[in-house]
Amino acid sequence: MSKSTALILLNMGGPDSLDAVEPFLYNLFSDRELIQLPAGALLQKPFARTISHFRAKKVVENYRAIGGKSPLLDWTQKQAAGIAQRLGEQFKPYVIMRYWHPRGEDVLSEIKAAGIDNAVVVSMYPHYTGATTGSSVNDFKRAAKKVHPQMQYQIVEEWHDWPAYLDAVASRITTGLDHYHDMMRDEVHVLFSAHALPQKFIDRGDPYQQQVEESAAAIMQRVGNYDWSIAYQSRSGPVKWMTPGTEEELQRLSTLERSAVLMVPISFVSDHIETLEEIDIQYRTLATSLGIVHFLRSPSLNDGSDFLDAIAALIAERCQG
After folding, report:
1. Which domains does the chain have, with CATH numbers?
2. Residue 186 and residue 52: Cα distance in Å, rounded?
3. pLDDT for 1-52, tens place per residue?
4. Could you give the count of Cα atoms lying within 13 Å of 112 in the half-sphere of its Cβ?
5. Of 6, 87, 263, 305, which residue is 20 to 30 A from 55 by alpha carbon distance?
6. Is 274 a catalytic residue?
């Protein structure tokens, strides 16, 4: 039996080519833990196939605008390698994506073939909801039970209040603020933008919104005395979403004649479509049209050494022994 330990990072995944966009969307819309389409489980996949087909044309253009694929796998692999290196040579890095490759069963087959019978599993979503962390963890557990049932593992699911993570985000905000002229810096509004959820997830008791609010407050204690607020992006479809939407918040700030806004992608730890296309292109265009002429985004955590140090320390504390 190998004495190695698999370090497995869980994330959403993204299409690795333009041709992969439609099947990626199909996998996403097929997941009833994330999206419960009408008419029940039996019709979920037929509905998912129809919706993914019609939405793919627009989404393909969004991915084309950022280079033709999602960078999420590249960043997550770099994160896994960097964290494993910090934990010690017995840790071997792996990545499992929920809606695109590499998928759970394939990765666990690889781990089993390597003779590795122990694992530490980390959700790369800082804030917990059953739609993201819950779905990814359940997907992992099903695959582990089917492919590698003898493997022992520990799971790190929540870390929104981990001090070193908060320090890393605060550092990115400070970096973003440094790009504003000294005469303007005190007037910058810091806007945290988290991925939206249907309101029903919050109403059923998911702690996601509370955790986002707690993270943002703790981060701003580190940053200093700036006006700030939270909004929720990526809302689409005819359901009741968390509020306020990021578009609505930008409109509100424009009515207050705020001309400088620093957007902080609070629920994302890597650059992907929501940062590179939705924030950097769509929201920048909207902000400029509203008179917010000094619009910037703070850098993402990606494979920054402070962030990798933070997650390595988190694992060391949560998974002692």
Report:
1. 5-14+70-158 (3.40.50.1400), 18-64 (no CATH), 163-297 (3.40.50.1400)
2. 44
3. 459 999 999 999 999 999 999 999 999 999 998 887 766 788 889 988 999 9
4. 15
5. 263
6. yes
Give yes or no for a contact between 306 and 163, defined as CB atoms under 8 angstroms apart. Answer: no
Instruction: Tell me, yes or no, if 99 is annotated catalytic.
Output: yes
Catalytic site residue 278?
Answer: yes
Exactly one of 7, 9, 34, 290 is catalytic; name it.
Answer: 34
Q: Summarize pLDDT for 74-133 with one digit per residue, the tens.
A: 999 999 999 999 999 999 999 999 999 999 999 999 999 999 999 999 999 999 999 999
Residue 310: name the closest of 121, 169, 172, 154 by CA: 169
Mean pLDDT computed over 237-263:
94
Q: Considering the chain, what is the average pLDDT of its residues?
A: 96
Residue 34 is among the residues annotated as catalytic for this protein: yes
Dihedral angle sign, alpha carbons of residues 208, 210, 215, 216: positive
Verify whether residue 177 is a known catalytic residue.
no
Which of 16, 117, 274, 280 does the annotation list as catalytic?
A: 274
Task: Name the catalytic one among 37, 74, 97, 98.
Answer: 98
Examine the residue annotation and report whether 28 is marked as an active-site residue of this protein: yes
| Active-site residue flag, 303 | no
Q: Is the whole model's pTM more than 0.85, yes or no?
A: yes
